[in-house]
Amino acid sequence: MLNSLLPAAQYFGEIEPVFLFYGAMPTGVSVSETGRIFVCFPKWGDKVEFTVAEIVGGQLQPYPNLETNMESPWNITTSFISVQSIVADGRGTLWVLDTGAPNFSEPIKGGAKLVAVDLTTNTIRRVYTFTEVVVLPTTYLNDVRVDYRVGNAGYAYITDSSTKGPGAIIVVDLDNGAAFRRLNGTESTSPDPCMLPKVEGRILMNRSREGVISPFRLASDGIAISPDGRVLFYCPLTSRHLFAVSTEALRDRTIPDADLSYCVEYWGEKGASDGMITDAQGNVYAGDYENNSIRKIYPDGAMDTIAHDPRILWPDTFSIGPDQYLYFIVNQLHRQPRFHYGHDLRQKPYSLLRIKIGELPAPTFS
Fold this sequence. Notes:
With 366 residues, the chain is an all-beta fold. It is 2% helix and 39% strand. It has a single domain (11-356), classed as Neuraminidase (6 Propeller).
């Protein structure tokens, strides 16, 4: 009786369920300009029947087909191995970022790649692979943004969220496929060594089945690009800080990494984020996995919390649809066995949720 009279935390934000997942744990979502919804399932230990799917008629269908999702030693560069992120670009292409590194292993040679899939024909248009000086033995390709307003065919920007090596932004010329690492191992792409993540009131650390405990550290992860394509926003996963850098400076290889760090702008503390996205007005949306929340950061740096809900159990990838909703995956990542001595604390279903923001996604072309 007395307990019912005690004050409690206030939750807000009108979130809606879009799809529930009862199988493998999803990480990525992207909504195309025509409203098609794509999701991905990296191979982190769950049984993954297909690593990329489209939601059609309330069901998951392997995308673009089951064959492409069935890797073998003979089709490493043309099949999907373990996809971490998918991004629809607003003009008919789904960009598929394949880590080539199931269970966070060393990337399979030729397996780590960026794949352009034509949404009209549902076929692979082009595959971009990487040299060993770009994708390191420690690399984990995490998220990608594209911009068609520069170069002959545009550029892609990819975060390397390595757990054991240097974080970085990987820049890819979509015309000739040339790729190079930027801000390699610098402070802004590295985990915050002073951060101790706390989720659901508990400290998040690696806790192996054998009882070995170590800090949870993940490098540059969340990424978003300004509506004009001139600024790239990014953040390490184990950090509460937001950084920004000129995309022109990123592409300019005459600027050494040591000097490029001076081009990085610090945008303050936004909470610990996995996914990020930008709308057409230049607002950045970022998850806060420590506080079951979603932040909105305005172009002037001001910030609001637009959703705070106990169901937002680790907000992962974000996408903005043509219906002006912000879509996001909730996957209970922090409840995985590797954080709990081998015990899986996740409770199905995982979910795809959305919240009305009244804005369109940032364009990738003029």
